[in-house]
Structure formats: structure tokens, C-alpha cells
Automatic annotation (TrEMBL):
Protein known as: DUF503 domain-containing protein
Domain of life the protein comes from: Bacteria
The organism of origin for this protein: Thermosulfurimonas marina
InterPro entries cross-referenced by the UniProt entry: DUF503 (IPR007546), TT1725-like_sf (IPR036746)
Length: 96
């Protein structure tokens, strides 16, 4: 069993408030959960900064190749988002 974890850092240009940030982040989380069924998603950092967001996603798979492919599909999806710019992304794996 392999747990794949991705940490994605975003810049939100044109955003002027925490309320606006929460709306964008909530929308992104719902879109990820709807598109990728085997995924857990949460905002995991920079919660009081209104132009930055850190989103964590995780998945469980039978081997690392499967988890890596799935998380890279997620990264490809978020790279094309309007209104949110992906600054950095890290992927890690835990094997059991």
C-alpha cells in the first residue's frame, strides 16, 4: 500500500479579501473532489493570507506508479485554472 501526498502552493492575483480567497479555495476543493474520486483534499496552510493558498491532496494506491500518475493528473488539472496560479508543488510517498 502506498499513500501519495501532494502539497500545492497557489498565488491568487486580483484577490482582495479573505472572503474572496475562501470562495476560490472552496470552489477548487469541490472541483477536485468531483473530478478525482479517490482523493482527499484540504486547505493546509497560509489560511490568513488573502493572496496565497496551500492545498494538500492525498490518495491511496496499490503501488507508487499508480499514485504518482494520479497525483500528476491532479497537478495538470490545477495548472490550467483561471484566477489561481500554481507557484510550487511537492509530491511525497509513504509505503506500508
Amino acid at each position: 500500500m502506498v499513500v501519495g501526498i501532494a502539497r500545492m502552493e497557489f498565488y491568487l492575483p486580483g484577490n482582495g479579501s479573505l472572503k474572496g480567497k475562501r470562495q476560490r479555495v472552496k470552489s477548487l476543493i469541490h472541483r477536485l473532489e468531483a473530478r478525482f474520486k479517490k482523493l482527499s483534499v484540504a486547505e493546509v496552510g497560509d489560511q490568513d493570507l488573502w493572496q496565497r493558498a496551500v492545498i494538500g491532496v492525498s490518495t491511496v494506491a496499490s503501488d507508487q506508479k499508480v499514485a504518482d500518475r494520479y497525483l500528476n493528473q491532479v497537478l495538470s488539472f490545477v495548472e490550467d485554472l483561471d484566477g489561481m496560479e500554481l507557484i510550487s508543488a511537492e509530491i511525497e510517498f509513504l509505503s506500508f
